[in-house]
Amino acid sequence: MDVIIQSNAEMAAHAVADLIARALSAKPDLVLGLATGCTMESVYDQLVRKHQEEGLDFSRCRTFNLDEYVGLAADDPCSYHYFMRQRFFDVVNIDRRNTYLPDGMAEDLETECASYERLIAANGGIDLQVLGIGLNGHLGFNEPLSAFRSRTRVQTLSRVTRSQNAPLFPKPRLMPQRAITMGVGTILEARHCLLLATGLDKADIVARAIEGPLTAMITATALQLHPACTIVLDEEAASNLRENDHYQRALPGQNSSPAASPIIAAQNKNRDLQHPVLSKKPLLADKF
Ligand code: GLP
Questions:
Q1: Which of 68, 112, 127, 143 is the catalytic position?
Q2: Which neighbouring-strand residues pair with 5?
Q3: What is the DSSP pairing of strand 128-131 with strand 31-34?
Q4: 67 noted as active-site residue
Q5: Is the model's pLDDT at 271 over the cut of 60?
Q6: Is residue 143 annotated as part of the catalytic site, yes or no?
Q7: Residues 212, 137: contact at Cβ < 8 Å?
Q8: Dist CA 241 CA 243 (whole Å)
Q9: Which atom of ligand 1 is found nearest the CA of 179?
Q10: How confident is the model at residue 273 (pLDDT cuts 50, 70, 90)?
Q11: Which of 136, 142, 165, 255 is catalytic?
């Protein structure tokens, strides 16, 4: 696991967008796993800017989103389909036929989950999976007690998740009780995982996810098992880490400008990057 700490949320989002852009430039038909949530909004803003100003090309990219609420149609403004269209798909040159999210309106949800898994496999698996983290440590909607080997399935949302996400609905009672989510096992099969967390309210769960013992109660701890996982944090989200000084930081003075590459500038303190498994990875590992 590689932990990169940026001075603020904006710089952290820049770092994540840079990594995605580099992966896409290295492999134009990248299979990109995508996440939603407020934290991701500035990452999409950056990717859109890179497309518009720097010509970042999404035309051959394929995307798979982590999750979708059960019972929300694609044109519902609270659905993740809608979020992705508004924030990203409709404003870059991606081929909409290559963008996939689980269908929360499917008549047979089990069949929908199984076909989502098949679709990922048919596309050769996910190259780079972008992730946020819920206040309870969930990845996607893998709520506490999700098995580390779980696959795409329907999850009942926990109380913590419902209270975290209810403000995003016009009325809290309109928030669905269930969602389809990629499983923890599905996520761990991605060739590279890239998690972004920012803000003080994530500091406690981030520390437990990165430094705490593995537990299905906090599904993000499963990332400790992944051979190629990058975690990007801002100072606030990193503030409870015990080994804070061991992790990578942008060199002083080099992370003040979005143009500076925080990844290249990062002090490579984390020797995990020299691990032979990582050095064989086609994506990202060579960028540090
Ligand atoms: C939702 C998504 C998660 C995401 C989380 C974080 O619950 N299903 O994939 O990680 O939101 O949300 P935020 O970035 O708003 O804190």
A1: 143
A2: 233, 249
A3: parallel
A4: yes
A5: no
A6: yes
A7: no
A8: 6
A9: 8
A10: very low
A11: 136
